[in-house]
Design brief:
The protein is an alpha/beta fold and 369 residues long. 41% of the residues lie in helices and 18% in strands. The chain folds into 2 domains: 150 residues, ATPase, nucleotide binding domain (Nucleotidyltransferase, domain 5, 2-Layer Sandwich), CATH 3.30.420; 156 residues, Nucleotidyltransferase, domain 5 (2-Layer Sandwich). It has an 8-stranded mixed β-sheet with strand order 5-4-3-2-1-6-8-7, with helices on both faces. The chain has a 5-stranded mixed β-sheet with strand order 11-10-9-12-13, sandwiched between helices. The structure holds adenosine-5'-diphosphate.
């Protein structure tokens, strides 16, 4: 049995897969630090979870109540948001890996500390349990230098200010699923769209990411639930001048996007609302998805197939149709809807690392710097 842990800044999701990668149990806590809710066994209940560690313990208790016996666990696999330039694939968590994840905290100040807390808490509880990490940035390690470099002077580039890209675990899952659906003849140039609260696009050529819409942080690219998407750096500086850095950051990350334009970050509610603001927010979302998709198609040198994933991508026929219509210029191509099974992908990656270790290929998975 493999425990998968996806710890975010205000939520934690856990899932347990058996040795055949069948999903067995799940528990999660949302709204950590405020009105925390435990979700387990199809039920939700208020709970007391002031921090990630408390929330993780609640999840583990719920998994035990559901029937998981901890001595059946053979490993734990974590989603880690930022692997910086150090990780091009999933790996076993060692002290060296923990240091490398710590080094990426300035790049993901909300997410990586949550991931580290979960890794350390689990190591305290189960010191002998092997732990693995899958990185949201790793899938984009194949982007060419020209795609990831900001045209900045050398000094800020030395700080690690470059494009990284995110949603990589979702994109790796999309590639796997599309391979399955197309009976291994993966389309050469695949445009993948992960459209959830966070939203991004990825240009995938022969299964490898060549370009993606998110950059240094997940703020860049598409109009999102609460993030602005692409915005001129000078506009950001002006906002920082007027509102201060902290407030400007809150506005850009938590009060913009669909919420900022339409008053709500739930796409379903925006469709139901009849206000011009709600209609405009949806139009903005689709327009910018098409604009950024055009950039991905150029980076791929054409388009052979489209895959949608994420809460909006999987469920929202209207948004999908608007985006596909906007891309008609690139020709008629197959369109797939692929459920984002990030927990399963993390479990599969951990299993692959374990297999490589057994076969003596583990050294490949150590951080590169
Ligand atoms: P997160 O990035 O937080 O994981 P999700 O992938 O769950 O987000 O996506 C959340 C978004 O998906 C919200 O905007 C929500 O309104 C939208 N969504 C979920 N179900 C539907 C649906 N049936 N129709 C349209 N939008 C939906």
């Amino acid at each position: 049995m493999l425990l998968v842990i996806n710890a975010g800044s205000s939520s934690i999701k856990t899932a347990v897969f058996d040795d055949h990668l069948q999903h067995r149990f799940a528990a999660s806590v949302s709204e950590i630090g405020s009105t925390a809710m435990l979700h387990a066994g199809g039920q939700r209940a208020e709970c007391i979870a002031p921090d990630i560690e408390a929330a993780l313990r609640l999840c583990l208790d719920a998994l035990a109540t559901a029937g998981l016996s901890f001595d059946q666990l053979t490993g734990a696999a974590h989603r880690v948001v930022h692997g910086g330039s150090a990780f091009a694939q999933a790996c076993r968590i060692t002290p060296q890996v923990i240091t490398a994840i710590e080094d990426c905290v300035p790049l993901a100040p909300l997410h990586n500390p949550a991931n580290l807390t979960a890794i350390r808490a689990l190591a305290d509880l189960f010191p002998n349990l092997p732990q693995y990490a899958s990185f949201d940035t790793a899938f984009h390690a194949t982007n060419p230098k020209v795609a990831v470099t900001y045209a900045l002077p050398q000094e800020p580039r030395n700080l690690g200010i470059r494009r990284y890209g995110f949603h990589g675990i979702s994109y790796a899952g999309i590639v796997r699923k599309v391979k399955e659906i197309s009976e291994n003849s993966l389309p050469r140039r695949l445009l993948a769209l992960h459209l959830g609260n966070g939203a991004s696009l990825c240009g995938i050529v022969d299964g490898l990411s060549v370009a993606t819409s998110m950059g240094y942080s997940p703020l860049d690219g598409l109009t999102m639930g609460t993030r602005t998407g692409s915005i001129d750096g000078n506009a950001v500086l002006r906002m920082a001048e007027v509102y201060g850095i902290k407030e400007a950051s809150t506005m850009l990350n938590r009060q913009s996007g669909l919420l900022g334009l339409g008053g709500c970050n739930d796409m379903r509610q925006l469709h139901d609302a009849t206000t011009p603001e709600a209609t405009f927010a949806v139009e903005h979302f689709c327009y910018w998805a098409v604009r950024h998709a055009g950039s991905m198609i150029a980076a791929m040198g054409g388009l052979d197939a489209i895959a949608f994933s994420g809460g909006i991508g999987e469920n929202d026929e209207k948004v999908r149709s608007a985006i596909v219509a906007g891309l008609a210029f690139a020709g008629a191509v197959p369109v797939w809807v692929i459920p984002a099974e990030e927990e399963l992908t993390i479990a599969m990656e951990a299993r692959a690392v374990r297999k490589a270790e057994r076969e003596g290929r583990g050294a490949q998975n150590h951080p590169s710097s």
